[in-house]
Amino acid sequence: MSVHSTEISQNVTVSVADPSAIGLFGLAMVTLVASSQKLGITSDLSYVLPVAIFLGGLAQIYASINDAKLNNTFGSTAFGAYGFFWLVVASCWLINYGVFGVTLQQAVDVNQLGFIYFGYLIFTLFMTYGAAGTHKVLFSIFVLIDFLFLGLSMSTFGVAPELGHSLAAYSELLIALLSFYGSGASVLNTHYKRVVLPVGKALIK
To answer: Which residues cross the membrane (predicted)?
Structure first.
C-alpha cells in the first residue's frame, strides 16, 4: 500500500495602501508648528513636543514601515530617518527641560546637536538626488529640507547664527506648505484615480 501526499501551495497577497499621504501630513504638521516657534509667531516648545513625537515621529515611522512592505526603499528610508529625527529632537527638548534629571540637563553640549543637524544635511543631500526620480513636489520638499538642515547647522554652530535661524525658519514653513500639498495630491489623485492635484514629472528617469 502506498501513501501519496499532496502538497498544496497558496499565495496570499496583502494589499497595502500608499502611506505617502499620512507621512507627508505628519511632516507638514510638525514643520508648520515648529516654524511658527522659530518665526516668533508662537513661543516655547511645550506644545511642539507632542506634535514632534506623534506626527513628526510616529506618523512618519508608520509610513516608513508600510513603504517597506511595498518594497519602496527610498520612501521607507526617508520617512524612517526623518521620523526618528523628530523623536531625537523631542528627546533633546525634554533633556533641556530637565525631564530626565538635572545631571543630563547640565551636561548638554549644543555642538552635539549641531553634528546631528550636519549629519542629516549629508543624508538629505543624497536623498535629494533620489527625490529627483520621483516628482517635482517631493524634490522641492527635499531641496527645502537641505536648506533647513543647513540653517540649523549654521545657527547651532554659531556660524552666522541669525542668518542660519532665518534660513531654517522660512525653509521649514515652505516645507510644511508643500507637504500639505503633496499629502493632498497623494490622497485625492489615488481616491479619484485621476490627477486632481498635479505633482510634476520626475526630473531624472
So the answer is: 12-33, 45-63, 83-102, 114-132, 138-160, 167-188
Q: Which of 58, 8, 9, 5 minimizes the C-alpha distance to 29?
A: 58
d(C-alpha 169, C-alpha 163), whole Å: 10
CB atoms within 10 A of CB 123: 17
Please give the Cα distance from 174 to 107 (Å, whole number).
34
Render each residue's pLDDT in the chain as its tens digit; 205 residues.
555 555 666 665 667 799 999 999 999 999 999 999 999 999 999 999 999 999 999 999 999 999 999 999 999 999 999 999 999 999 999 999 999 999 999 999 999 999 999 999 999 999 999 999 999 999 999 999 999 999 999 999 999 999 999 999 999 999 999 999 999 999 999 999 999 999 999 999 8
**Burial of residue 48, with CB atoms counted within 10 A of its CB: 0-12 exposed, 13-18 middle, 19 or more buried:** buried
Instruction: Specify the DSSP class assigned to residue 57.
Output: I
Contacts of 160 (CB under 8 A, 6+ apart): 154
DSSP 193: T
C-alpha cell at 28: 507638514
Please tell me the total number of residues recorded for the chain in this structure.
Answer: 205
